[in-house]
Amino acid sequence: MSIITKFIVLIFLFCLVFSSKTIAEEMKNVGKFNDWETILITEESGKVCFAQSSPVLQTPESSARNAKLFVTFRTSENISNEVSTTAGYEFDQNNSVTATFGEGVVKFDIKEQGFAWIADNKIEENVVAKMKKGSKIIIKGHNEQGTETSDQYSLLGFTKAYNAARMTCS
Question: What are the distances in angstroms from CA 51 to CA 14, 27, 75, 78, 132?
């Protein structure tokens, strides 16, 4: 092997080792709490911590979607209790995305890049309070073709995952 080839291989290995270490340092699984988990992402601007879960039931069943429900804390932006969801597709702008828990229904106001958010922090705090007391939450939305989907999330472990996210980012 020539010196130049050895040098290129050495640089490649150096980049590979340190880039994977950087990625590992940026995202950390804080803990798993029944059906929920807590994740910490360290960015240059600060910490992002969130509790997340995947649906226990999805309709239509035949759709292979990577749906998630999140409650996020962003220290650098002074954001807490940010409730968001993705259904694994772009939401139809002409239809609502809703969260149903018990008798309550809340609309997600913002739909962008496959995610939906609630714009009002007071409503988010109310949703979080109901999630802590409830056993399930159902998120309904429509894809761009108009097909309605429904994702049911268990709230088993939510309070512990939420508290871990809040404490990690405090």
Answer: 34, 13, 15, 17, 12
pLDDT digits (tens, 9 = 90+) for 136-167: 999 999 999 999 999 999 999 999 999 999 99
Cβ distance 52 to 165 under 8 Å?
A: no
* 124 in Cβ contact with 82 (< 8 Å): yes
Asked if 45 contacts 27 with a C-beta cutoff of 8 angstroms, the reply is no
Position 26 scores a pLDDT of: 86
In a 10 Å sphere around its CB, with 0-12 CB exposed, 13-18 middle and 19+ buried, how is residue 12 labelled? exposed
Question: CA 125 to CA 137: how far, in whole Å?
Answer: 15
pLDDT at 23 over 50: no
Q: Which domains does the chain have, with CATH numbers?
A: 28-168 (2.60.40.1880)
Q: Which tokens go with 63?
A: 């759709």
